[in-house]
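note to self: dont lose this again. the chain is below, predicted strucutre after it. 123 aa total, dont forget to put it in the shared folder this time
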Amino acid sequence: MMQFVHRFILIISRQKRGGEENPIILILHIYIITVMIAIIISPTIPLALQLFLWKCVDSLPAPKDHLQIFDLQPVGQMQNIIHRTEEPEYHKEYLFLSENPIAEKVYIMDDGDYATMLLASEY
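---
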């Protein structure tokens, strides 16, 4: 079973009149991007960490790989996160304090219409 979470992105676009672009009039469009998160993620990965992983993906420049891989490992009282992709090749490591660091592998898969976060063990 999947739960749906809606993230809203405000995109500013220019209004066109009579086929010509009017640079003065800006219209705010709200696009809903449906993000499916496997229910198993919610109790396993703390919400703050889930949001951080989404932010990591959102901050990547285009083109983005459809499969984002996150390796989460405890290092003492620190949470180590290795974010990587295969195409284009990408690798970045994060290390920060955590009350309860966890060891998991998380995938975020994005087909353009839907993005799904799930544990590698559920794939």
